[in-house]
Amino acid sequence: MTETNSKVGSKRVKITDTILRDAHQSLLATRMRTEDMLPICEKLDEVGFFSLEAWGGATFDSCIRFLNEDPWERLKALKKVIKKTPIQMLLRGQNAIGYRHYADDVVEKFVEKSAENGVDVFRIFDALNDIRNLLTAIKTAKKCGKTVEGTISYTVSPVHNEKVFVEFAKQLRDEGSDIICIKDMAGLLSPYAAFELVSAIRKEISIPIHIHSHCTAGYSPMNYLKAIEAGANIVDCANSAMCMGTAQTSTEAFVATLQGTDYDTGLDLEKLSEITDYFTEVRKHYEEFESKFTGVDINILKSQIPGGMISNMESQLKQQNASDKLHLVLDEVQAVRKDLGYIPLVTPTSQIVGTQATLNVLMGERYKNIAGQTKDIVRGMYGKVPGEISQELKDKVLEGEPAYTERPADKLEPELENARNAEEAKDLIKSEEDLLSYVLFPQVAVTFFKNRGKEVPAETTAKKVSGTGHYQISIDGEAFHVSATEIDSGKITVDGVTYSVDIQETEAGTKPAPSGDSSSSTPVASGESTDVHAPMQGSIFKIIKNVGEKVKEGEVIIILEAMKMETEVNAPCSGKVTSLKMSVGDSVTSGQVLMTIN
Predict the structure, then answer these.
(1) 3-class state of residue 10 by DSSP
(2) Nearest-CA neighbor of 509 among 570, 589, 596, 580?
(3) Picking from 150-164, 321-335, 416-430, 455-469, which range would have the lowest pLDDT averaged per residue?
(4) What is the pTM of this model?
């Protein structure tokens, strides 16, 4: 436990700075590289923060998926430089840093290795606020002698209220949490609600209270002041070079606000100013990933999308050639969330709801295609949802069978030993950390292992689709299918960003359907054969039916990984698979032929 935890009676406020994690996750689609972090870490370490949030959340995934960096090596490198200030991570309970529940042996080993490599404070949350999903992670972190922040995922809905959150806070305390964190991931907490909630928790709990809030709706600075007045001890802020918008309140502004009061942080504004100058220059390197949500958007009170997901959702819709559909997706999120029992929107549920909403918009029909993780929520495999799931979804997914009601992880067999012997990765796994990376993100990790240590610059090859005005362009490993707005002297401009490219020819078969055209998932008959098309852009996660195998109409034949979620492709008709156009791991574009059924 850190020194601050024993000083609840002091009014001095402590600050956790999120510049190394949530700030760039929220504003720059989690793209900041380790090489841009390390030079300033010594100065960050000297400020006197309660902690530096530097790991977990989406950073692990982004390191291996987009940056060709080992997240474990990032953590070790940061720990070598950050010697005084505790390093904090965000851990998704039984989801670890992935998007599904993992067996207890995976969660235990992940927490142990995280602690061993440099994590001092574990902020542990569950998207559904199901205490059963937090127990393994809390127990393991405590066993490792680390500080545990048991976390409330705050949301607003007809089934959430102050009493519900206070009871959950008491459960977190009783299970061994050293600190209670109120995680306002979407910026929905209003100032007076913050005062009332913190006051109610403080009446029941004496351990420190830590507030995390995003500025999307403009509430965050006021939330912090009212929460502090009610008894909160620690707040999350972001260096002003990457603050506000979908990120957190400015560190410098909040330090200045509290100066000379009973809550004075004692932090030096001069030291903070040097850090700001550094990150102001760093931010310029990531302009193409900038979120459009840099101001205040009160409409977020309706969609409730967390700050860290908005910039990622913009990027994902761009991949689907559907950037213009963002407003429709945000509206659809509300409907999907209600249908799933008013679940709080925080990873992985925010990703699941966001992906399902995107599928509904792109397909032109609600639940025409149901993502695998959406089905798992309905089946009870993520835990108990706070409200009631819609009967329509129950009927489509459960087909009369009961949902699972026990602790979800109890249904999972140990995973580590089987993964250790997996044929595709056994020669690539060099350490226990590698093993964990593979279990958490199998396909992405294998690609990373093969490229590890290589200089992998942003790929800038644009392939012209023969006979069309479309170009297939790959940037930082993400494939985009776009119409070129400018081609001049080996350059292409896409969404206002100009890339130097090598123009090549490719086959017309990869041409996507127009944005939002649900015909991309409609079978196209050719004689007695039927082509099966990709409903959206992604990669082949699993092939269920191979050449020569019989299929029934509606049967799952391929699983895509799209927008980090698993999306099932169903057989449009009965017959036999006569040709298969790709292999596991291949990238596909919307409308691309996946297989032929005869």
Answers:
(1) coil
(2) 589
(3) 455-469
(4) 0.81
Cβ–Cβ < 8 Å for 289, 62:
no
Q: Which of 418, 452, 413 is nearest to 435 (CA)?
A: 418
Q: What is the mean pLDDT of residues 429-451?
A: 95
d(CA 144, CA 428): 28
Across 36-50, 75-89, 284-298, 375-389, least confident range? 284-298
Segment 274-283 shows an average pLDDT of 97
Supply φ then ψ for residue 455, to 5 degrees: -85, 105
Tokens standing for residue 43 = 């100065």
Per the document, the length of the chain is: 598
Tokens linked to 529: 């054969």
Instruction: Kindly provide the residue ranges of all beta strands, DSSP E only, lying in 391-533, ordered along the sequence.
Output: 461-465, 470-475, 478-483, 491-494, 497-500, 502-506, 524-526, 529-533
Calpha distance 330→298 (Å, rounded): 13
Count of alpha carbons within 13 Å of 283, Cβ hemisphere only? 20
Report the alpha-carbon distance of residue 256 to residue 21 in Å, rounded: 23
* Radius of gyration for the chain, computed over Cα atoms and rounded to the nearest angstrom: 24
The span from the CA of 104 to the CA of 415, in Å, is 9
Contact assessment for residue 345 and residue 336, using Cβ atoms and an 8 Å cutoff:
no
Whether 265 has a pLDDT exceeding 60, the answer reads: yes
Task: Give Cβ neighbours of residue 161 (< 8 Å, ≥ 6 apart).
Answer: none
Whether the per-residue pLDDT at 94 is higher than 60: the answer is yes
Give the pair of three-digit tokens for residue 264: 């004075």
> For 30-35, what is the mean pLDDT?
96
Q: What is the DSSP string of 289-303?
A: G--S--S--TTHHHH
Which residues are CB-neighbours of 388 under 8 A, at least 6 positions away?
341
- Residue labelled with tokens 């542990």: 124
Is the bond into 348 cis (omega within 30 degrees of 0)? Answer: yes
Give the angle 466-469-470 at the CA atoms, nearest 5°. 80
Question: CA 181 to CA 40: how far, in whole Å?
Answer: 27
Q: What is the CA angle 29-98-55, rounded to 5?
A: 55
Q: What kind and span of H or E run contains 578?
A: strand 575-580
Mean per-residue pLDDT for 345-366?
88
What is the model's pLDDT at position 497?
Answer: 46
Compute the Cα dihedral for 445, 451, 455, 458 and give only its sign.
negative
Report how far residue 180's alpha carbon sits from residue 190's, in angstroms, rounded to the nearest whole number.
19
Per-residue pLDDT, 472: 55
Structure tokens at 210: 């830590």
E strands in 92-216: 121-124, 147-153, 179-184, 209-213
Contact 530, 575 (CB under 8 A): yes
**Residue tagged 């100058």 (tokens):** 277
State how far the Cα of 447 lies from the Cα of 456, in Å rounded to an integer: 12
- List phi, psi (to 5°) of 11: -85, -15
- Cβ proximity of 567 and 359 under 8 Å: yes
What's the angle, vertex CA 455, arms to CA 453 and CA 458, rounded to 5? 130
What confidence score (pLDDT) does residue 464 get?
Answer: 46
| Measured distance CA(393)–CA(351) in Å, rounded | 18
The band of 591, judged by pLDDT with boundaries at 50, 70 and 90, is: confident
